[in-house]
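If it is no trouble, can you show me the amino acids of a protein and the tokens describing how it folds?
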Amino acid sequence: MNVAPMTGTLDRGRRRSHRGCDFGALLAPTAPEGVLTLERMVGDRQRLDALLDAVGEDVGSARRDVQASLFLEGYAWTLGLPLAGALFAERRAPGLAHAAVTLRATAWPQELVLADARFAALADDPDADDPAAVVVTGESELAGWLRAELICHLKAPVAELAAHTGRSERALWRSVGDRAAAAMLFAGEAGGDVPRAATLAGRLLSGPGPLTGRPDYRTIVVAGEPMRAHVRTGCCLWWRTQAAGCCATCPLTMRDARPTPA
């Protein structure tokens, strides 16, 4: 199947960056050697234990719930940036079939590869007549299509992580929602339209199923400089690592931050 339409979108995403992060991924008909799907990573207990051990060594925590939380945060961020970039900049959403999303990870996810040629787009998209295109009627339906893909993609891995580490599925899904909202903020800042990014994030995180949350973009001061950040809805457990303190986006430390003006 031709992967050209989303190849172009994700290539352009790699050329768009914000705060040192780009919005691209590799789209390939077959996965490179040595990469795995998330399901294979977490479904093999020996491989999963080795992965979680590596995360724990890096952050200074032997707790499995902390390791699971932070690994999934990393995966949701690595996946969320290209999704947010495509949705915001080109009004497209790539398919996320289980076997078609692969990555390499020794501790933190990297080298994300998509091999699902399907993509959702609006009727006025120049590639709307492509056989792999799913044409939707507006941005709300586009975000809803991506939401359904995310839930289907992550449902089994989240359940496996929860069962193996004791971190609840609800808490893990909140992590996914927080990372998605933060990725949309980056896309909105890069594109100069944070209110539209907030609207898209709200649509992505609204609806039936386990993926919940809301964009809460506020202005904080870091090292004397104002910057926008997303106030989390759930705890990532960073305070239980060797850092021994809250993460920069903790709702406890950001509750007095100024709301970002529209």
